[in-house]
Write a structure and sequence with these properties.
about 260 residues; about 80% helix; about 0% strand; globular
Length: about 260
């Protein structure tokens, strides 16, 4: 890489770390930049996944206050995320690059619809539970675990917008605030990136310069994103998720 390419990758890492912590979809910033430096798509994907791990951890640390009391939930959901992440990583190296890309915009679009409708859906579900005398599982139950498992397969494969899908699923199936859901999302993303990247280290070619630049940049971005995201009210956070997700869909369709 030239010095200008290295600066561009570092800046993309900062941006990705920031947006991943607040919303998700940071890969849509780093991935095109890596391709522009001449890296092959698979090498760019696996290098990006490894480089974003410190950013995910940094963002989770920034949200540590909102993670209080969620240990049991994270252990259960994290196990599903880990299994899904490693499956997605295997699929990335086993399937042709276009296999999942055709359905990615559909998944992101569905997630955005769920994010928009989440308050109404949550209220409707709560009213139904009250009428039937049914107490919700504080960890979301089998339906959430299954949904996160599938979303994590996609996350291990490409990672872009996986955070939006996580927020959509947990927002509907957990009786908790959006900020606490967002904090959990950051931990799950870190788990998926870590297990997928661990597999890639032994099974794929990485560009270690790109990994290092994104790692440092995303770490700084993770702290910045936590400071910004924790101050956003639920309506503003939901609006930002929808805005970023819409841009993600447009970018994915134009690729």
């Amino acid at each position: 890489m030239t010095i200008w390419e290295m600066l561009a990758v570092f800046a993309a890492g900062v941006g990705a770390g920031t947006i991943n912590t607040i919303v998700g979809s940071g890969t849509l910033i780093t991935f095109p930049v890596l391709l522009a430096t001449g890296l092959p798509p698979v090498t760019a994907t696996v290098s990006n996944a490894l480089g974003l791990i410190p950013g995910s951890i940094s963002g989770a640390i920034g949200y540590r206050k909102e993670l209080t009391g969620q240990r049991r939930r994270i252990l259960r959901l994290g196990a599903a995320a880990a299994v899904g992440g490693i499956c997605g990583a295997v699929l990335l190296l086993a399937l042709p690059p276009t296999a999942f890309e055709t359905i990615v915009p559909v998944l992101v679009g569905l997630a955005l619809v769920l994010v928009i409708l989440q308050p109404r859906i949550t209220k409707a579900v709560q009213r139904r539970r009250e009428r039937n005398g049914f107490h919700a599982d504080p960890d979301g139950g089998p339906l959430l675990i299954t949904g996160l498992l599938i979303a994590s397969v996609y996350g291990g494969y490409f990672t872009a917008a996986q955070g939006i899908i996580y927020v959509a699923l947990m927002g509907m199936l957990l009786t908790d605030t959006l900020q606490r859901v967002n904090a959990t999302k950051n931990v799950l993303a870190a788990i998926v990136n870590t297990v997928a990247a661990t597999f890639f280290v032994f099974a794929a070619e990485l560009d270690w310069t790109a990994v290092a630049l994104i790692a440092v940049g995303s770490t700084l971005g993770g702290q910045l994103g936590a400071k910004i995201g924790r101050r956003l009210p639920p309506t503003a956070l939901r609006a930002l998720i929808v805005a970023v997700g819409t841009v993600a869909i447009i970018q994915l369709l134009l690729r």
